[in-house]
Specification:
By secondary structure, the protein is α+β, with helices and mostly antiparallel strands. The protein has one domain: Chorismate synthase AroC (Chorismate synthase, AroC fold, 4-Layer Sandwich). Helix content is about 30%, strand content about 20%. It has 11 helices and 17 strands. It has a 5-stranded antiparallel β-sheet. It has a 4-stranded antiparallel β-sheet with strand order 1-2-6-3, with helices on one face. Strands 4-5 form a two-stranded antiparallel sheet. The two termini are about 30 Å apart.
């Protein structure tokens, strides 16, 4: 059963975005600055649209926190859209006296056509405003709350760009996350970054867009989250669904993922070797992590590693051919504004979604209504796992 859940509301050019987070324990220290940090990271990245320069997202906490600590009730968040003043008539809740020009040429690759047909609408704007990736700002705000909770248990989540436009990183060994955070593309490979930047510039000059792959890594996740007993309790299924829900993501792999399909079983699995834990007791260790930290739907104590493929943005500076829904004639797809590449920002959204799933799984396993209770349960469990050899 889900312990932590959230809902968002709001349109891209509406008054703002709303989020309600239910199930977070009381006693967690939380401030708006905790959320602001991740919102800033989402807005960064070379290849973003002018809107990212116009707005600096801030989430106001309007409920669920008192004197700097969560109180167990739903946490309400509001993110104002600073461009709202320019869109008041177009996005007015009440009827307006003048005719608002409808959007009638759907963009291939977006929710435009399927959305207006599904909901029986005659103006694509009623679909594109909610289908916009602007909604992910609210998810990142929710994810920041989940991240704060996970920090109490020593769990850290990072992301980096693996490829853009066919240019891939070449990183051996551990990733320097400070280098990633300083990079305009959240890339740990400086040479690959140069090629990616040049490719983005070329795509922009051509009125085109680029996709790529990002990776999210969660370190410090304890063994035992999730379950093998039912399909919807499997941790990998929950994570895959959360990552696939991110705009423009068309593929997800965990650990070795698709590469494991081309090797033999003897090369695909992480052998278990004897070892000793920090207390000197008998334990086990893994020299590899092909499973990406999850076996049988359960976290196995290794870092959880997720990769996601992000398709090129569907709104192009040189729009693709489409059909005008009113006249039935050939037309160019609608264009309003567009990012050239969102892979770095999508990685930050991926962090948020992974944080939300892991926070939910932690609460599911360790329970508690107050953070101190959850921590006590966690420590008891970790103590039992770390005590030595399992007979």
């Amino acid at each position: 059963m889900t312990k932590l859940r959230f809902l968002t509301a709001g349109e891209s050019h509406g008054q703002g975005l709303l989020a309600i987070v239910e199930g977070m324990v009381a006693g967690l220290q939380l401030s708006e600055e905790d959320i602001r940090r991740d919102l800033r990271r989402r807005q960064g990245g070379y290849g973003r649209s002018q809107r990212m320069k116009l707005e600096e997202d801030e989430a106001r906490i309007i409920s669920g926190v008192r004197h700097g600590y969560t109180i167990g009730s739903p946490i309400g968040l509001f993110l104002a859209n600073r461009v709202w003043q320019e869109w008041q008539e177009v996005m007015s809740v009440a009827p307006v006296g003048t005719e608002v020009q409808p959007v009638t040429a759907p963009r291939p690759g977006h929710a435009d056509l399927a959305g207006v047909i599904k909901y029986g609408l005659d103006d694509i704007r009623s679909v594109l405003e909610r289908a916009s990736a602007r909604e992910t700002a609210a998810r990142v705000a929710v994810g920041a709350i989940a991240r704060r909770f996970l920090e109490e248990f020593g769990i850290a989540i990072h992301s980096h760009t693996v490829s853009i436009g066919g240019h891939k990183v070449e990183v051996s060994g551990s990733i320097d996350w400070r280098v990633v955070e300083e990079s305009p593309l959240r890339c740990a490979d400086r040479e690959a970054e140069k090629a990616m930047l040049a490719e983005i510039d070329r795509a922009k000059a051509d009125g085109d867009t680029l996709g790529g792959v990002f990776e999210v890594v969660a370190q410090g996740v304890p063994i035992g989250l999730g379950s093998h007993v039912q399909w919807d309790r499997r941790l990998d299924a929950r994570i895959a669904g959360a990552i696939m829900s991110i705009n423009a993501v068309k593929g997800v792999e965990i650990g070795g993922g698709f590469s494991l399909a081309s090797v033999r079983g003897s090369q695909a699995h992480d052998i278990i070797e004897p070892g000793r834990n920090k207390k000197g007791a008998y334990f086990w260790c893994r020299p590899t992590n092909f499973a990406g930290g999850i076996e049988g739907g359960i976290s196995n104590g290794e870092p959880i590693v997720i990769r996601a493929a992000v398709k090129p943005i569907a709104t192009l500076g040189k729009p693709l051919p489409s059909v005008d829904l009113r006249s039935g004639r050939a037309a160019k797809a609608h264009y309003e504004r567009s990012d050239i590449c969102v892979v770095p920002a999508a990685g930050v959204v991926g962090e948020a979604m992974l944080a939300i799933v892991l926070a939910d799984a932690m609460l599911e396993k360790f329970g508690g209504d107050n953070l101190s209770e959850t921590i006590a349960n966690y420590r008891t469990y970790i103590s039992s796992v770390s005590s030595g050899r399992h007979e």
